[in-house]
Structures are given as C-alpha cells and as structure tokens.
Amino acid sequence: MAAGKRLIELVAVMDRLRSPGGCPWDAKQTHESLLTYLLEETHELVDAVESHDRASLKEELGDVLLQVVFHARIASEDENEPFDIDAVADGIIEKLITRHPHVFGDAETLKTPDQVEASWEQLKAVEKGRTSAVDGVPMGQPALSLATKLIQRASRQGVSVAINEQISVDGEITSTSIGELLLRVVALAEKNEIDAEAALRGAARKYAEEIVSAEESARDSQVE
C-alpha cells in the first residue's frame, strides 16, 4: 500500500462524521471547543515518547493527527475564509521546500544540524518580516518553554542580555541535577505561596522586553 493512502480515508471518515446524518457531537465541535483535546493529546504523545512505549506512540500520533484533520474539516466550513486539509498540506510542503534550499535548491550545503537550524531561523525571519528575536514567540506558552525559547532566540541572533546564572547545583551539571534544581525552585515558591509558573512567566516577559531594548540600542549605535 502506498504511504498516505489511509490518510485519504481518514479525511473521508471525518467528512462523514461532520456531515448531516453523521455524529451530533462531532458536528457540534468548533476550533475553540477542540483546544482542550488538542492539548491533552499532545501531552499524551509526549508521555508516550518519554516512556518509549511504541504502541502508545502509534496511538497518540493518530490522536494528534485526528485533531489536525478535525480542525481542517471545520475550517473548510467557514463562510468567509474556508480552507481544507489540502490547503494545510500545501502550506507545510511549501514551507519545508523553501526552508531547505540546501536540499531542494541550489544553496550551499549545510553540514551540521546547527547550521540548518540557523538557516531555518534566518529564512523564517525574512519570510515573516521579523525585526526582533522575540517576534513570533508565543508568549502564552508554558513559562519554562517560553523562557527557554527566548534565551535560545537571543543567543542565536547575538543579542546580549545578562542573566544571573549564579546558582548552586550539587555535583556535575546534568539533566538530572538541573531537574532537581528546578524542582527545588518550585518547592521554594510553593512554600512561600508564590505561583512558580506565573513568576517565571513574568521574568520571561521582562527578559523579552530587555531583548527588544538591547536590539534597539544596537541599531541606534550603528546609526551613530
């Protein structure tokens, strides 16, 4: 069987569920009502990957795929700006080809993952007209992910914003020791009745403002 054939059948099944005479629950759903399921299925997929459970991985990938097909089917019904699963696929295909000129074009060969990642970010910034390292970073994502993304963006684009890294880690710095440190920080916050998520989000937002300020200062110095 050719790869992708069953995807066509999945689209047909979803069409049947959303069409008159199909499933009342499926027909009632909206982009907004499905968000909680999308988040839940994504977290379950993460669990499957981290637990190295191949059976669960296959199942959870299917559940996440269902969410994509479901949202695309709902989008096709929009009266003003409809688009379907083919339009979604067209978009990501074009993006993959455009962002990999070293594979699909005549650009210089990129030999390392870091070079590919840097090229991807540069092309993305040009396509979207971004002028700041923080442009396009979803500020509503979980605080730890937000802080990580902001630090990565600033580092990749050479924006210098000082962070006090004087923290104590017992022994060698590993993923385990960092995890234990983060756990201690959360426990400390809880002991003092502080929302650790909100606290880190606030610090991350302040850091984002400092990145923008540093970029403006760098541009001003170049003009002078």
What does the model show?
With 224 residues, the protein is mainly alpha-helical. Among the domains are: 5-85, Helix Hairpins (Orthogonal Bundle), CATH 1.10.287.1080; 134-156 and 177-224, no CATH class. It has ten helices and no strands. The chain has helices at residues 5-18, 24-28, 31-50, 54-75, 85-98, 101-104, 113-128, 143-156, 175-191, 196-223. Helix 1 (5-18) packs across helix 4, helix 3 (31-50) runs antiparallel to helix 4 (54-75) and helix 8 (143-156) runs parallel beside helix 10. It is globular, with a radius of gyration of 22 Å. 5% of the residues are buried. The mean pLDDT is 87.
Kindly estimate the percentage of residues that lie in beta strands according to DSSP: under 5%
CATH top level label of the domain at 5-85: Mainly Alpha
- Shape, please? globular
| CATH architectural type of the domain at 5-85 | Orthogonal Bundle
Overall mean confidence score, pLDDT? 87
Radius of gyration: 22 Å
Order of helices and strands: HHHHHHHHHH
Span between termini:
64 Å
**Percent helix:** 55-70%
By DSSP, the count of extended strands is 0
- Model regions low in confidence, pLDDT < 50 over at least 5 residues: none
Instruction: Kindly report the oligomeric state of this protein.
Output: single chain
The biggest beta sheet is recorded as: none
Determine the number of helices (DSSP H or I, runs of at least 4 residues).
10
Named CATH topology of the domain at 5-85? Helix Hairpins
Q: Provide the CATH superfamily of the domain at 5-85.
A: MazG-like
Class per helix and strand makeup: mainly alpha
